[in-house]
Amino acid sequence: MNGLKEMLLKEKEYLESILAKVKKENNLTLEGRLRISVDNGKVRYYHCKDNKYGEYIQKDNKELPQLLAQKAYCSSVIKATEKRVKLITRCLEGYSDDEVERLFEKLHPERKKLIIPVEPTYNQLKERWYTESYFGKGFREGTPVILTEKGERVRSKSEKILADYFYRNDILYKYEKPLNLAGYGVVYPDFTFFSKKYRKELYWEHEGMMDKADYVQNAIKKINNYQKNGIYPGERLILTFETSQETLDSKVVKKLVDKYLR
What is the chain's Cα-based Rg? Predict the structure, then answer.
């Protein structure tokens, strides 16, 4: 299953955060355990240390029963959580999402020519996607000509920065490839990629004039319609923002590329 490794790593991280929280916030060194006795509707608490029946806890001592009960509960949580962390760790050892795909990719090029893989590899799908032609959005007459290192025309200096970064890092993209959003119409995402994780298109929108009210309203409407079509920020939609005071941050671009496009 593609993406399973990432899911397991996130689950492991979540479980480890629970362990850290439980161990930090609770008194696990308190000696003994709690025994509860209910007789004719009356509840009695006993602090068990050296014998199984324990010593009766006076009614005015409300804190000790709570501490002992909390300790027992947290000990159970720790035991169950540590067990699951060990299971995930064992599962991750030597595990790779693309193990079957790599069986084909590591073959000699001449042998590859003789074989049809059980499923198209990511590289095959990406190359097929990249070579498909499309008609982008036209430029109005009089619009400044801004060319990328690839020789492609874009609409802004920020888009050139992004396009040049992708080009230098061998990240295949399509500029302003049309996308139909149901209930909204055709949009032209600034950049479209083929996602290794989803085996689907992934979109990058740079909202570059977020200090202009009309622009912001249109941007929000478009992003909402992405989501209505099942394309969510942090999954298949990457967003960067800019104002006249807050320009595009190259460090943020690198982090987003490393997270979503590697």
Answer: 29
Strand, helix or coil for residue 135: coil
Mean pLDDT of 28-40: 93
Q: At what angle do helices 250-260 and 157-168 cross, to 10 degrees?
A: 50
- This prediction has a pTM of 0.68
Strands annotated E in the chain? 33-39, 42-48, 55-56, 146-147, 153-154, 174-175, 179-181, 185-187, 191-194, 201-207, 237-241
Q: Half-sphere exposure of residue 156, counting CA atoms within 13 Å on the CB side? A: 14
If you write DSSP's letter for every residue of 155-212 in order, what string do you get?
SSHHHHHHHHHHHHTT---EET--EEETTTEEE--SEEEE-TTTSSEEEEEEE--TTS
Q: Tell me the β-bridge partners of 186.
A: 180
Give the whole-angstrom CA distance, residue 139 versus residue 161: 19
Q: How far apart are the first and last CA of the chain?
A: 18
Which tens digits make up the pLDDT trace of 44-100? 999 999 888 899 999 999 999 999 999 999 999 999 999 999 999 999 888 887 888
188-210 residue pLDDT tens: 999 999 998 888 999 999 999 99
Query: What span, in angstroms and rounded, lies between the C-alpha atoms of 28 and 74?
Result: 8
Residue whose structure tokens are 């074989």? 115
Is 74 in a helix, a strand, or coil?
helix
Q: What is the pLDDT of residues 222-240, one digit of tens each?
A: 999 999 999 999 999 999 9
Report how far residue 160's alpha carbon sits from residue 250's, in angstroms, rounded to the nearest whole number. Answer: 12
